């Protein structure tokens, strides 16, 4: 993967997180949404985290999807513990030399030196305060795929604790704890901010800018430098191809490598081949979603259809939803809430899962790309997908 630093964007976000801009609320939490594989994690790890460290901030990064089988709350606690450990270690070694079993950190917190780096009995609030005071620097906690925290009670509790830590460590004009939460699904990330019961109620979700013309100009420059016989490269066509790939650099660069390979036996210009590759990728992605949909049982299809149609307004068991399920499946009898619940659980248990569930019992489509697929087909009048036998078969269960 070709490195493309987004230094200007990272520096601007650091200023916002530090509260140095006249407008904005990033110092109270920066929430970034971007579709999967569009470079969000690369930006966080390769640009934003280094920029924060350059500004004198201790950075704690955790990706809640890296170990999806572990509880998100535990992953957050472990990340803070690992960041705290080296700072405690210096003090602990000095304490052990004097024969002390415990040491006072910053004059307020006693930590058992045999439990350094572990959070047994130490709250997230106290751990973050300890990290800030022992490092004598502001702390930034960067949580990638933060919406995954809502899938467990411990994860929800961790989010509430982080909000408390922010309120305790920060004061007007002084930002000691910066929180960055990213997510690949805006609707799920909204659940952290959009209701009175949300831990960060009132904060705003920002859409992370996609890679644009400057990125493509960088790619064109590299191509012309390495393959001067291809100059001048048609940047506009490559930009259209990149957008056809959903602005996903990984897929774009893979296709570019294939069409520029000496083994490709390509005749003529390579730019049209990139447009064809983008169209094929889109067709393959949509074909997979259609195959997944048509492979479902009628009630599962109806439930998923309702979720795609309603988005964040989806309520699985209200009267309108149950009437919708009955109509779309052609049942003679009403669909009951337990039957709808069984369909939802079946959708969650598929590999890969088609449905996401929060610890509060909220449901959403797992892959946000499926919403875009649905909206495109609905606008074109080609929804729902039809099997060879026609649309949803009557369901007699």
Automatic annotation (TrEMBL):
The keyword Acetylation does not apply. GO terms for molecular function: ATP binding. It comes from the Bacteria. The keyword Transit peptide does not apply. Keywords: ATP-binding, Nucleotide-binding. This is ATP-binding protein. PANTHER family: ATPASE DOMAIN-CONTAINING PROTEIN (PTHR34301:SF8), DNA-BINDING PROTEIN-RELATED (PTHR34301).
